[in-house]
Structures are given as C-alpha cells and as structure tokens.
Specification:
The complex is a heterodimer of chains A (about 270) and B (about 250).
Chain A (H helix, E strand, L loop, with lengths): L11 H29 L9 H13 L9 H33 L1 H14 L8 H8 L3 H26 L2 H9 L4 H38 L5 H9 L4 H29 L1 H7 L1
Helix pairs in contact in A: 3-4, 3-6, 3-8, 3-9, 5-6, 6-8, 8-9, 8-10, 9-10
Chain B lengths: L3 E10 L2 E11 L4 E5 L6 H8 L7 E6 L2 E2 L8 E4 L11 H13 L8 H17 L15 H13 L5 E5 L7 H18 L2 E5 L3 H7 L2 E7 L12 E8 L10
Parallel strand pairs in B: 3-8, 3-9, 6-7, 7-8
Antiparallel strand pairs in B: 1-2, 1-4, 4-5, 9-10
Helix pairs in contact in B: 2-3, 2-4, 3-4, 4-5
Classes of the chains: A mainly alpha (about 270), B alpha/beta (about 250).
Chain lengths: ~270, ~250
C-alpha cells in the first residue's frame, strides 16, 4: 500500500469504470438540473427532459419534413459531410504535394516556406467575407474556407515531418542510384503517409469549426445551419442531439483514420516494439 | 577496378580547418581502416569520399576521374544507424537498388522483372545469412541483422567503393566477431575497395590491409580551429587477405 500514486494502475475493468465515470456524472448532473427546472416550470425549454429529446429526435431523424419532404437530420448530415469531405480531400492533396515538395527540394523550400509561414497566420474567419464576395454564397465558399483554414497547417506539419526523416536514408537512396523523383516516390511518400493521416486527424477539429461557422452564416441546409436556426426558437431539444451527432461523426472520422494507420502501415508498430 | 587518389585535399569551415594536406594513393581492392581521436575528421573524410561535401581545396579521383558532386551508385555506404528503410521488408530493402535502376518512372518492378530481381536479392540475402528473416521489417530485426541487411542492400548495386561509418559501433562483442567474418568474406568475393571508420583499434588491425590514422600535427591552444587534422600514419599491413581473429 506504500506504493507511490504514479505506480498504481487501474485494472482492465477499472479502466472502463474510470473512463465511463465522467460521462455518467455529466448525464446525472444534467438530469438532476433538468428535473429541478421542469418541476418549477413544465414548459421550460433550456434543459428539456428525456421524453422531449425522444420526440425531437423522432421528428428530426425519422419523420419527413412537411415543407421539403426530406428527413432533416439525414439531409443536413449529407450536405455537411459533402462539404467537409470535399474540403478535407482538397486540403490533404495540397498539403501532401506542397509539404513533400518543400521538405525535399531546397529551392522550393527557399521560395515557399516564408510565404506559407505568413499565409498560415491569416485568420481564415477574417477572410470569410472575401470568400463570400468572390465565390458567392453557394457550396464553393464553404469548401474553400475549410481548404484555406487547414492547408497551411498540413503543409507546415508535413514539411517538418519530411525534415525529420534521417538524412542517412536520403543519402543511402542516392547511393542505390535513386533519382529525386524515385526518392520521393519510394522513400519519402511511404514514410510520410502515416504522418499525413495523423496531421489530418489533428485538423479535423478546425475543419468542423470552419464548416459550422460557414453554415451558420450563409446556408440553407447542413448541421451548422440547423443548430443556428433552432437557436431562434431556443429549441435545445434539437440543438443538443445535433451537437452529440456532430461529436459522434467527428469521433468516428478520427477513429477511422487511426485504424487506417494501423491497418495500412504494419511497419509502424514493428518499429515501435 | 576501383583505385582512389586523394590529391592535397583541404576541408575548411568558416573559422575552422578540419582536414589539411591529405594525400593518398589507394590501390584497387584494399581494405582501409580510418582511426583516430573523436573530432579529427575521419567521418568528414568519409563524407568527402561520398560527395556529401566537396573539398575546399584539392581533388579526389576514383579510377582517374574526379568524383561527381553528389552520392551515386558507384559508392555504397553503411552508416552506424538508419541505413535501412523501415517501411520495407528485408527482401524489399534489397531489391530497391535494382528497382531504382530498372524502373525510372515508378522505381518499382512488376511481374517477371520483379521475380528476377527477387531471385538475385535472395542470393545476396543468403550470403549475409538473413534468409529466415526475408519478410520481416527492420524494426523486427536485431542491430546486427539490420547492419547485415544494410550491407546486402549496398552490395546488390556492385559499388566500386564501400564506405562504412562505424558500422559495428553499436553491436555487442559476439555479434561484432560474426560481422568481421562476414565483411571479410564479402570483401574478398566482391573485390570492392573498402574505407571503414572505427574507434576500435583492435577492430581496425583485425580487418584492414591498410590503417590510416588521423590526427592534428600542429595545435594552437589559443586558436583550436587554426590547424586541421591530417593523415599521420599510413600503415600497409602487408597482407593480401586479413585473417579474422577467432
């Protein structure tokens, strides 16, 4: 019993218990305060009870909207994921191309890295009005906001990661007769791809932030649009499930990228062992 | 043929002379070991041979021709660490040199060409004793096995010069002895000229046909960078093929 705190570790079951505890506490605290407010005013909208949530979820996720004939949650999810996916795909491609080029080719680095360092300091939300003016209020400006928001980070992160590859490996490849292009293709890219997946994981948060901001300002559908629309009616019974749904989607994407790394790059785990 | 001439080579950095007045004539097929205290330019000299750097003065000739300005397949190298590609298995590491030569655009061979490359690689893998590990990643290999893989990978391009930068520095004594036997056998079979940097005197005299010692002959205590190191002893050991101590 005299062991230090840093040496005491929870068992497997203990880990599940301690991991679940904060979630349970949050739910219990919510339910208690919700019950207290509802006891005072049965029409309270701020902390709705479980039944109200159930009804709202049923209305948004399983019933056709009377005006548009669509099921709103799925329509919103599809629009948002389309924008997010497109933005992430473009940003990832640009990040990979420019990150590897600046990391490998000294002349590209000399020419581009000061420019990228400055551009990455421009707050993307500050140029959102410019995007709306240039690209209009339709889909393009929202996708462009995501791209502008996360591409500089991806480029800088990948440039750093390429720089962290041991110089010995690049010399070795040259002594095996590789050209610059072959070095990029066979030595740099395969070792950088798992780092790319990690960088994309880290930029998922900002990507959602930019998506929801853009949808909140100018959109006719999408998860962010719906939340900000419901705010006008103080419809917490819709807003909270939407937030939970967005969180779940983001978590799922993060998890998928992590699994992708484990599955596709078996040498990573062997390197660590 | 792989004869090396070094003519009055100086290597200077701003405010510091690292190497001065290096002159050498090394016949084809010699096993040269470079020894000397830390920071006296042994590794710098190896980097010059590899064209990772260019000498400030003088020139280095390989078979009478000036060295190209960048590393190439005529000079193979094994470093102390990071000599093999962690994302490729043993067999993939070894065929890589053949793939670079055989496929300009993709750097990757397919079909019959790939099978031929693998067959050739398997002979080299067998000669360094890694056949049982052919599909493992370097991360799953011991330090000695990784260095054997690095040597196999280098030999498949049949370099004129083999440059070894403390290749056995991180290995345990038993593994070192095995590596001495291996490198001696491969050196004899391939007829390659070897330059090896080491800190281990015994290792040097065990393997070499010629020992080159690097040291500073002049020293100014007020300006440590004013004079560089040079080759203080150039000892031919008078043996065509060194015997490996058991």
């Amino acid at each position: 019993m005299s062991r230090r705190v840093i040496n005491r570790r929870p068992s497997r079951g203990g880990k599940i218990f301690w991991g679940a505890a904060p979630f349970l506490i949050a739910v219990i605290v919510y339910l208690v305060f919700s019950a207290l407010r509802l006891a005072e005013n049965p029409n309270d909208k701020l902390l709705p009870g479980l039944a109200t949530f159930g009804a709202a979820i049923h209305r948004m996720a399983f019933t056709q909207d009377m005006r548009s004939g669509e099921i709103l949650l799925w329509a919103d999810t599809a629009s948002s994921l389309r924008r997010l996916g497109l933005g992430l795909a473009v940003a990832t491609s640009l990040g990979l191309i420019f990150g590897v080029a600046t990391g490998v080719v000294p002349y590209v680095r000399a020419g581009l890295s000061p420019f990228i360092a400055v551009v990455s300091m421009v707050p993307p939300m500050a140029i959102l009005p410019i995007l709306f003016i240039v690209f209009g209020l339709a889909e393009l400006s929202k996708v462009v906001l995501i791209v502008i928001g996360i591409t500089p980070f991806l480029i800088r992160d990948l440039t750093l990661k390429v720089g962290e590859l041991p110089g010995e490996l690049l010399i070795k490849a040259q002594t095996l007769g590789a050209s610059t292009w072959q070095i990029i293709l066979r030595v740099v890219l395969p070792q950088i791809l798992p780092r790319l997946a990690d960088a994309v994981r880290l930029s998922l948060g900002p990507a959602w932030l930019f998506l929801i901001s853009a949808e909140a300002i100018a959109a006719t559908d999408g998860l962010g649009y719906r939340i900000f629309l419901m705010r006008r009616y103080m419809a917490m019974d819709v807003i909270l499930p939407y937030v939970a749904w967005i969180t779940f989607l983001a978590f799922l994407m993060d998890w998928a990228l992590r699994k992708f790394n484990q599955r596709c790059f078996p040498w990573l785990t062997s390197e660590a062992s | 043929m792989s004869q090396v001439s070094v003519r009055n080579v100086w290597m200077e950095y701003p405010g510091q002379i690292v190497l001065e007045r290096i002159n050498l004539e090394i016949a084809s097929g010699e096993f040269c070991v470079l020894i000397g205290p830390s920071g006296c330019g042994k590794t710098t000299f190896l980097r010059l041979l590899l064209s990772m750097e260019t000498p400030t003065r003088g020139e280095i000739l390989l078979d009478g021709e000036k060295l190209p300005g960048e590393p190439g397949p005529d000079r193979g190298v094994v470093f102390q660490r990071y000599s093999v590609f962690p994302h490729l298995t043993v067999v993939e590491n070894v065929i890589l040199g053949l793939e670079f030569a055989g496929s300009r655009l993709l750097g990757k061979l397919f079909g019959p060409a790939r099978r031929r490359a693998i067959a050739e690689a398997e002979r080299v893998i067998e000669s360094v004793g890694l056949t049982a590990a052919r599909d493992k990643y370097p991360g799953q290999l011991s330090g000695g096995m990784q260095q054997r893989l690095a040597i196999a990978q280098t030999l498949i391009r049949k370099p004129k010069l083999l440059l070894l930068d403390e290749p056995f520095g991180a290995l345990d004594p038993g593994t070192k002895l095995q590596m001495y036997e291996l490198i001696t056998r491969l050196w004899r079979e391939e007829g390659v000229t070897v330059f090896m940097v080491t800190h281990d005197l015994k290792e040097g005299f065990t393997l070499a046909t010629r020992v080159l010692t690097f040291d500073k002959v002049r020293n100014d205590p007020d300006a440590p960078g004013a004079y560089g190191a040079t080759i203080t002893f150039n000892l031919p050991l008078g043996k065509a093929a060194p015997l490996v101590a058991a």
